[in-house]
């Protein structure tokens, strides 16, 4: 099939390359001419495992091309996937739909009869219906469907090739048929396919993100209670997660969520629910957001406490800048927000990240960056673990202890092994685990931590 993919960011680049890989003829369209030039040269605008190889393969096959022209896109295909951003409006919590609307307006006068616009961007419920009405005047006969995207950054290619489910919000059998054909290999491979009305499809996306965000904030709220009660949130999370109705995933206490989706999606959902008279039903999302944001301030406060109440003259090593491992995306990254706040408050901060140094430097040029963990930690008074890259599990705490000024670790992601760090002489602190940091002799502390973790990490 022929199709365009409009907006070649995280979602669009992965979607365009994967659709071409499964055999479709794809034209990727973006208004950013530099981005289109590098994509056409086989360079992905983002770091995602396997994406560069996929681009090279599909460009070479001739099934993937790129352009900056919507008119060319409208002439090329009848099916148009819209993958542009829907950020938070600067002066409210609602979503900014100007990019979606610009694409629809830009396409409208060029569309061929029988065209199908398929939104993948995350939008407020009612957007597909609004666009349909708008197009009805400009280009009668064009249909609008919504096919929300669930890919996780860091696993974009894998998630696009093998999603856990496909959801399409359609108003006709024809549109459903087109989308079944687009995703035929996935459906054949057993991926569940849900055909709904557009409003339900739009809501599935924000409901799923709201649920996951709530789970994260729930366990972070429990971490706060554990800090006050002298209990251990890691053990608590494992014990409640063993209940199959609850499950262990997204129950990892830490610095909270960030990135370009969860924060703005839950805010936009609450704002839209308010507009349609259902605000009370999702009032809890405000609290989810507040708990999440509070973890950043709590981390800064803990760091200050560990440094004796002031950052002046202190060196802090920050491990991690990306909002999550596997990605170089620093949009609303909790790690970077914490790093910048520490520096602003007087600390000398040096940041390491395996992939996100360039993107972090572009937003926070005032921070110092190090290309390896050792360099970041040299002479540090405190090491903060803020993004849980798997590489950080391989750090040799004994060797690192030799490089720092003071072997103090705050594991804000609660996933480094406290026993091996303590055994190597580090004072280990983590949110929701106050007993980790009790001043006890090193050999007892090892035993104590082993007891706390049930002998396993
Ligand atoms: P992004 O910011 O990475 O990319 C958006 C792209 O759209 C940019 O390249 C921009 O130049 C382009 N664009 C803007 N206006 C345009 C126009 N008029 N014509 C053509 N191109 C235009 O965004 P993203 O992270 O890929 O997110 C896209 C949408 O998908 C958002 O609604 C987001 O919430 C949703 N989403 C994102 C993810 C994710 O992990 N990033 C996952 C699921 C859903």
Helix content: 40-55%
State the CATH architecture of the largest domain.
3-Layer(aba) Sandwich
CATH H-level homologous superfamily name of the largest domain: NAD(P)-binding Rossmann-like Domain
What is the CATH C level class of the largest domain, in words? Alpha Beta
Q: How far is it from the N-terminal to the C-terminal residue, by CA? A: 50 Å
What is the count of β-strands? 14
Q: How much is the average pLDDT?
A: 94
What's the alpha carbon Rg, rounded to whole Å? 24 Å
CATH topological fold name of the largest domain: Rossmann fold
- Give the uncertain stretches in residue-range form: 439-457
Largest sheet properties: 6 strands, parallel
Choose one word for the global shape: globular
Please tally the helical runs, counting DSSP H or I stretches of 4 or more residues.
19
Query: Approximately what portion of the residues adopt beta-strand conformation?
Result: 5-15%
- Provide the structure class: alpha/beta
- What is the count of structural domains? 2
Q: What ligands does this structure carry?
A: nicotinamide-adenine-dinucleotide
How are the strands of the largest sheet arranged?
A: 3-2-1-4-5-6
Textual characterization of the structure:
The chain is α/β, with parallel strands linked by helices. It has two domains: 2-195, Rossmann fold, CATH 3.40.50; 208-442, NAD(P)-binding Rossmann-like Domain (Rossmann fold). 45% of the residues lie in helices and 13% in strands. A six-stranded parallel beta sheet has the order 3-2-1-4-5-6, with helices on both faces. Strands 11-10-9-12-13-14 form a six-stranded parallel beta sheet. Strands 7-8 form a two-stranded parallel ribbon. Helix 13 crosses helix 14 (334-344). The longest helix is centred in the middle third of the chain and has 32 residues, at 198-229. It is globular, with a radius of gyration of 24 Å. Mean pLDDT is 94; it is low at 439-457.
